């Protein structure tokens, strides 16, 4: 019976161990899933938004540069005023995108490069305003010279810096994807460990149950074999007692 109690205690410990492993595995899985979601939603979506905004900035800057050029090629005041309105609208849109990105950009390399892009964009718009004034004053030749030299240089530097910044963002996206893959791998390993532990504990419990059943059967058989001997012993003792009562007391005294 002591052995049976010990086996029962071992089964309890195995079940307790399996429960702890399963709970720990579930907590690890839950933590990794949250980590995957947080990284993906914050980093990936933010990076994609930054890349789209930078693409829009390059496109709008090129559009603004063309409008400045068209301003110097027209002679009518109405056309010049229309171009200036379009350029002002584009400038507000570009400045708005830069302000939005300024609140999201993080990291020393990206921040430093983005500030360079921002500074070049402001310098570009200041020079574009001077060119508008030259064109309004009738100095279209000088204005076109500044367009092909100064403004084109600003556009080239802004585009190059944005390409480098885009490369940094792509590298961060790749790093985020690697972390996500690592978290998924850990989650899969934890799941397999839980399954293996559950299967192992189930098998061990079955083995222990079979062992207990076998020992109980043996104990039952042994009990049946020993039970008939007791009546025989009791019967022999009773016969001897009755025989003793039949002997006279004088026989005991002699």
Describe the fold and architecture.
The protein is built from 6 helices and no strands. It has helices at 2-73, 77-104, 108-136, 140-226, 229-246, 249-253. Helix 1 (2-73) runs parallel beside helix 3 (108-136). It is rod-shaped, with a radius of gyration of 46 Å.
List keywords for this structure.
disordered C terminus, 6 helices, mainly alpha, single chain, 254 residues, rod-shaped
Q: What is the H/E string?
A: HHHHHH
Distance between the termini: 53 Å
| Mean pLDDT level | 77
Uncertain residue segments: 249-254
| Rounded Rg | 46 Å
> What does the largest sheet look like?
none
3D shape: rod-shaped
Q: Give a count of the beta strands, DSSP E runs of length 2 or more.
A: 0
Summarize the structure.
The protein is mainly α.
Would you spell out the secondary-structure blueprint of this structure?
Layout: H1 2-73, H2 77-104, H3 108-136, H4 140-226, H5 229-246, H6 249-253
Helix pairs in contact: 1-2, 1-3, 1-4, 2-3, 3-4
